[in-house]
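Review form for a predicted model. The reviewer records the input and the model, then writes brief findings.
Reviewer: anonymous (R2)
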Amino acid sequence: MWNWIGQVEQLRKQSRPVSLVTVAAVHGSAPREVGAKMLVKADGTFLGTIGGGNLEFLAIEEAKKQLATGTSLKVNFPLGAKTGQCCGGTVELLFESLHTGPQLYIFGAGHVGQAIAKALNDSIFSVHVIDEREEWTSQLPPTVISHTLDPEIFISQTNFNSSQTYFVVLTHRHDLDETLVHLLLKNKSRYLGLVGSSSKWKRFQQRLKAKGVTEETLQIVKCPIGIGNLGKSPSEIAISVGAELLQLHYGS
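Model under review:
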């Protein structure tokens, strides 16, 4: 019998989030029995099996999305033409996030976003990078959780865990930065940082106030970000921002 509990413990020691996928119910013919399990890591690699085939592919994609929210859920998969399976039954899968720590969402996969993601990739943070430009997200390390889609859509589809959520906004467009800050202010978080100068943030504040955002709410945003002027190269900015986030998380 597969020792999935031992595998979970090994992953826990590595401080890596993992989704536990369990066959919760079976109706009709299916490739695996109730109780079959699979562990899916953030990069899409997995341990165990719930039956293989396209069902397993779909389950892995769903598990990666579920790791972004940390919320347990059940999903029904009909085993017919739409799922590329010929069993004819229906499988209900339970997705559960195990030992998830703080989640860092970096909006923008440019040079600085890449550097921050790489700097914190082996830290306590589970690092997500959101950018609709595939030519940039494709350059990320496989252990970084990349989301190649419109960041506004990503925000609308994601339920953030406020006590464990950190946001950093640094897209390739100032207007998009402003839009994302406006949207993210509607979500509770531990940290909301905007890359840029004080003058940039002052301009943003004026426009956001005109949209009804209160002065008290705007105080949530940190801009500029980082622990001080440690340099202007992407790697130097990443060290500064990474140090700030780690200090905040560990309470120093």
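Findings: The radius of gyration is 20 Å.
Further findings: The chain has two domains: 12-98, 103-250.
Recommendation: see findings above.
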